[in-house]
Specification:
382 residues; six-stranded mixed sheet
């Protein structure tokens, strides 16, 4: 890699009084009217050697940084997915001794979290009543292989129970729904445990269900009438319980359509996420619970809604009992919301972009030093 000096222009120099500037093809001189004067004159010879020869160490390091950066990006782009058919495999792992009386955990929006999310997984794993868990989406900040790989390592290291997933809006970023389906399986699906029918939906884009999924759901609800309970899992909730000034929910038309469908088929309970907090209520006769924090930020500072938690859901003879389990986070309680959030995002950035950042900073520093050195050589003070 060579940096060539551009031709020196006479405009860069100001002749002393009584002197004349003479510019030739290869050099520029400042001379007295009577002839050359070493005391006032200075010449810049037309030297233009390769930058690699002038700055061998800096230029070699710059080239190395570029190759390392390109190699790392290629590795990221072509790295294999960490697993495939995750939900299909974990559905087969669900083992319930009493199919009419069992418990499971529900949580969501754990993207970017480390300590708090891992504490949550350990609490679920240590609860002898819980038989499986379901993550309601926004498991990662964006749909990239490295983020899913990190997430699944967290799960494998801290949770021995089966874990199912629903797709969230952050999974649509990056490589999107296609990558999610490669790793976890279909974006919407159903399963049964005893006389209980579970349906996991894909409303991650916030627009509602597409025509194909809507037809599928109605058929599933028709089949579910033979069961004692019909439970829905979705990422974006049907409504935003915080009031009309908030809109972290489905569009009104799409929500109303689903509400009418759920009423017609007597849905037992709806679980959603997306809003960072805990909310529960009854929507036109449909019980719902929103659980939107398992590691990231909170939506507000109300102690009755804004706290770290997961849901423990108990199924017993066709009934559904939902209780909230707090997740202690010493880091949050000690640092406060803003400091905690800053640490989460900084750690997340360094975890996934640290190598590129370091290489770019080194390369930028080398380019700057080479440029400044060349500038001093080309345009020395007269």
């Amino acid at each position: 890699m060579c940096f060539r000096a551009r031709p020196v222009s006479i405009e860069h120099f100001k002749a002393p009084q009584g002197a004349i500037i003479i510019e030739t093809k290869d050099q520029t001189k400042v001379v007295n009217a009577d002839g050359p004067s070493p005391s006032v004159g200075h010449s810049w010879q037309g030297r233009n050697p390769c930058t690699l020869k002038k700055h061998p160490i800096k230029t070699s390091l710059l080239i190395l940084c570029i190759f390392l950066l390109l190699g790392y990006e290629m590795w990221i782009h072509f790295s294999p997915i960490p697993t495939s058919g995750w939900n299909i495999v974990n559905l087969k792992r669900i083992n319930v001794s009493d199919r009419n009386h069992f418990s499971f955990a529900v949580f969501g929006d754990n993207r970017g979290s480390k300590y708090a999310f891992e504490n949550l997984l350990k609490l679920i794993d240590h609860d002898q009543d819980i038989t499986f868990g379901i993550d309601l989406g926004n498991m990662v900040s964006s749909g990239k292989v490295q983020r899913y790989d990190y997430l699944l390592k967290q799960v494998k290291n801290n949770l021995a129970l089966p874990l199912l997933t629903a797709i969230g809006n952050h999974e649509l970023y990056g490589k999107g729904r296609e990558l999610y389906c490669e790793i976890f399986g279909p974006a919407y699906y159903s399963f049964q445990v005893g006389k209980n029918y579970f349906m996991v939906l894909d409303d991650a884009d916030g627009k509602g269900l597409g025509r194909e999924q809507r037809l599928w759901l109605e058929k599933e609800l028709e089949k579910s009438l033979k069961y004692k309970t019909r439970i829905i899992f979705m990422h974006v909730p049907l409504n935003d319980p915080r009031g009309t000034s908030y809109h972290h929910c489905l569009a009104e038309e799409s929500a109303d359509d689903l509400i009418n469908l759920f009423l017609r088929y007597r849905v037992t309970h709806v679980f959603a996420s997306h809003i960072h907090g805990h909310f529960e209520g009854n929507l036109k006769g449909i019980p719902y619970t929103i659980t939107g924090w398992s590691g990231l930020s909170l939506a507000g500072d109300r102690p009755d809604h804004s706290f770290f938690h997961f849901l423990k859901v108990r199924i017993k003879n066709g009934g559904v009992d939902v209780s909230v389990r707090n997740v202690l986070s010493p880091a949050y309680e000690k640092a406060g919301l803003l400091s905690y959030m800053a640490s989460v995002y900084i750690c997340d950035f360094l975890k996934f972009y640290g190598i590129e950042t370091v290489l770019l900073l080194i390369a930028g520093g080398l380019v700057l030093t080479i440029y400044r050195s060349e500038s001093r050589r080309r345009y020395p003070a007269v």
